[in-house]
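Good morning C.,

I know you're traveling, so I'll keep this short. The sequence:
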Amino acid sequence: MFDEIAYCYLNTVFVDSQGRILAYELSMSDKAFTDTFSYLASEDEIKSLYRTLNARFNFAFKDGYLKCNQVKRSLVNNLIMENLGKKIVGSKEKYYTLYSLLEEGISDNFMLLADRYAEAGNTINGFGATEFLNVKFSSSTMSVYFNILTDDGLENKHIICMEDYKLSAKPFFFAVPTTKRFSKDGSGGIENLGNIVINNVEYVLYRASEILIYDLDAYVSAGLINRASIDVAKTQNALNILADYRSCMCKALYEERDAGSVPWSGGTGSYESCFGVFYRADMEILSKKRRQKVLDIVLNGIVSECKNSGLEGAAARVKELAFSYEEKVASIALLNVAMRVSSLKDAIFLADKAILCHKAKNVSANLFLYKARSRAYLKKEGYATLLNPIITGSDEAISTIATEVFYYDNLI
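The tokens, ready to paste straight into the viewer:
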């Protein structure tokens, strides 16, 4: 049950009438937020979990006593005691939702297709397809979409958008490698359209429509929202600086000139609304200018300075610098590549691997947050208040800023 647990956060302590703690409610999750649940533990069990789990905690035990930030205290009852040692809320959906499809597609290398390419025939080469890993979750609207390169330029395709103050699923095409087993082939809302070849690889083409976009069975807690929003900000800063680094290495190796931006060829519309639910870590996303400062200091100073002390020594050197927390995060992501490089080609290869890793973490965290955002919007029940729009509860001293604006008339 706990093998893949990466985060373990204390939510609630349950006390008897004399104030003695009899049970602890924990929020647990794997790194990708695909297995999230609440767990009730006795004092002996929570101490055992703290000793044995290879996870991050928002609490500790010192000399046998619990140390934590302020948590909710509730009066214990028979139901709580009967469920000690059990998951009391699970994230395994009773229904196959859009989020189930996205998680499966990210894991098994499914492809998203532009409509006109999917409808045109059984072969796609070069344009019109992109990986599920490239799905995007808007931070200013409730839209979920993907950008896709076509022969006319870059265009976007919406999967979810806001229409008439309601979230609306849009039909889209996707493809599954014939070497993979798609768990929901032929299920409601997903149509099998036969085989298709994409870049010389054979896939099965599907069309998704009327697929569920609310996951009411997924377990969500304030601590996990806080953790996921921090992961989004950290990985975005890492992705940005690694993209800068890769661009520098490509220019040095191939003497490339800036080819300019890819032309924008349109999309499926703009779906702005003053309503929605948004969670953002109280962290900066570094500007190009500040990323350049980090690149210069790390590549022209720390890498050569710490050549003999390795990555550990370089990381220690970064901690000594007058960098902001965000600059230190970006520096460590950069050092994990730059300290292992033996050639320019090696630098590009390692940067690509690191970018893929950070992108996977970024998408997984955003996907979990969107489950929480869409459910909060549907139920009109947020995790913060207007007077205190701050969410905490993870293992880091970074808050999440919540914006929760609900539409109260004919929501569904």
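Safe travels,
E.
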